[in-house]
Amino acid sequence: MKIAGGEGEAARPLLEEKPDVYFDGCPGCAMDRRKAENPGIPYGLFFHTWIINLVTCLPVSSLFPFLYFMIRDLGIAKKVEDIGFYAGFVGASYMLGRALTSIFWGILADRIGRKPIIVITTLSSLVFNTLFGLSMHYWMAISTRFLLGFLNGSLGTIRAYAVEVCRPEHHAIGLSLVNTSWAIALIIGPAIGGYFAHPTEKFPNLFSNDSLFGRFPYFLPCLFISIICFVVLISCIWLPETLHTHKVHNKEDQHPESLITYLSDSKEFDKQCSTSTKNKGLLTNWPLMSSIILFCIACFDDMAYSEIFSLWAESDKKYGGLSFSSKDVGNVLVVTGASILLYQTFIYPHIAQVLGLINSSRVATILSMVLLFTYPPMANLSRPWLSIVVNVASVFKSCSVATVVTCSFILQNNSVPQDQRATANGIATTLMSLFKAFAPAGAGIVFSWAQKHQHASIFPGDQMVFFLLDVVVLFELIWTFKPFLDIAKQTSSSSV
User: Fold this and answer.
1) SS3 sequence, 146-170?
2) Closest CA relative to residue 395, chosen from 338, 341, 345, 336
């Protein structure tokens, strides 16, 4: 047996050893035994985890290219300038629903297993994403998005599952795949939303105005995603459970006849098995909480920017916008999403290794602040320069946000031991969802106000919108310094 905490442990804070103890009939023990017998990377399970997280993330990003037009068609906004106000609450409803239940789903996943939560989330994504596409009234769009988030318990569960299906030396790969599936969702989701919305206009030979898709112009992209969800839901039949169902911390629960291997030192066994039951005060762990706050600010920045960018790009030039179509916005988001994937895979690791996590975040926030000041003048450009400049700026802005998000995510996971990581992820998901709920609502209100004050003498509306985004990024930069951000000792001793 090898006890965690030996040489090299500080350099690898995510990796911890577990005793080789297996019980018959326990799915967690079956998974542990599988990992012990197969030391390689579990590519099949990693891909399954990746595709599950992908389909549950697609509904989050797919509506951005057509949300402006959907709110317009629902007739809730009396003036064009009010569209952003109502669009913000649709974006916020999903995050508010997720914020209310993230910790609950995490606790439930620890009680009944990872697989049931994943199945419930995938099924709810299928049902309520479909209903969202069939929305004929504003209240229906709001409620279906809220329920979509309320019943989404997979984010924290998937992060825990990605670690539990692989050996300790492959934890970093599993966690990074969870992040890259979101990057892929940023590519596929907006592409589906941008290309398939209003199919009767884009594909008149296939869809007539009298068809179902003519009556519900935003149903096709939602249906397409729901079909993918259905396929993934069927595949969950073969998804193995990883939760241990036996109680190993009590000696009376141990049955020698079902024990495959056991520790010779029973005191050490009891010590290791009862570690996870101790309350170590996550809320008082400032390295954890300060990194979660940085993570939340970065997510707020990302969500507010995503909401404002789509609304600004699709609004008319007389309001300071770009007069883009949903397809134009979809193209920009596809290019941006693909760039984020390439950046996180090939460029970010080298930047973090050279600059470190904190300096990388600071450089990224400074770059983000500079970029935001360049957005309002873009409305004066003509094509094709407009498309080129918008794409370049969007790529650099999103990669800057991805840098801070990834750095803060690493810091928070390195601030806790493995047996507290699922709970920490639940807290982070709840707080992040709250920040993301306020972001689109606030962004929509500000954007609506800005369109009504486009001709102000000081800070016209479009300039005020991006100035306020810059204020958020400035606060994000300030938080990377002490005493706001604290770093766990094991993290500061690592290579990044």
Assistant:
1) HHHHHCCCHHHHHHHHHHHCCCHHH
2) 336
- Quick check: 41 and 170 in contact, CB under 8 A? yes
Predicted local confidence at residue 461, as pLDDT: 66
Read off φ and ψ for residue 250, nearest 5 degrees.
-110, 130
Q: Alpha helix (H) ranges present in 377-460?
A: 385-413, 421-452
Spatial CB neighbours of 77, under 8 Å, sequence gap ≥ 6? 71, 83, 85, 86
Strand partners, 23: 259
Alpha-carbon dihedral sign for residues 198, 201, 205, 208: positive
Whether cis (ω within 30° of 0) applies to the bond prior to 384 is yes
DSSP of 459-474: S-HHHHHHHHHHHHHH
Question: What's the confidence (pLDDT) of residue 256?
Answer: 38
Instruction: Point out the residues of the chain with pLDDT beneath 50.
Output: 1-19, 248-279, 491-496
Say how far apart CA 414 and CA 417 lie, in whole Å: 7
In this prediction, residue 249 carries a pLDDT of 44
Q: Which amino acid is at 394?
A: S
The answer to whether 98 and 453 have CB atoms below 8 angstroms apart is no
Q: What is the 3-state secondary structure (H, E, C) of 334-372?
A: HHHHHHHHHHHHHHHHHHHHHHCHHHHHHHHHHHHHHHH
333, 194 Cβ separation under 8 angstroms: yes
> Of 299, 298, 288, 293, whose CA–CA distance to 412 is shortest?
288
281-287: long-range contacts at Cβ-Cβ below 8 A with a sequence spacing of 24 or more?
Answer: 282/416, 282/420, 282/423, 282/424, 282/427, 283/427, 285/415, 285/416, 286/486, 287/411, 287/415, 287/486, 287/487, 287/488, 287/491
C-alpha dist (Å) from residue 235 to 48, 118, 160? 8, 11, 19
Residue 23: strand, helix, or coil: strand
Which amino acid is present at 10? A
Answer whether 185's CB lies under 8 Å from 51's CB.
Answer: no
Instruction: Give dist(CA 155, CA 434) in Å, integer.
Output: 14
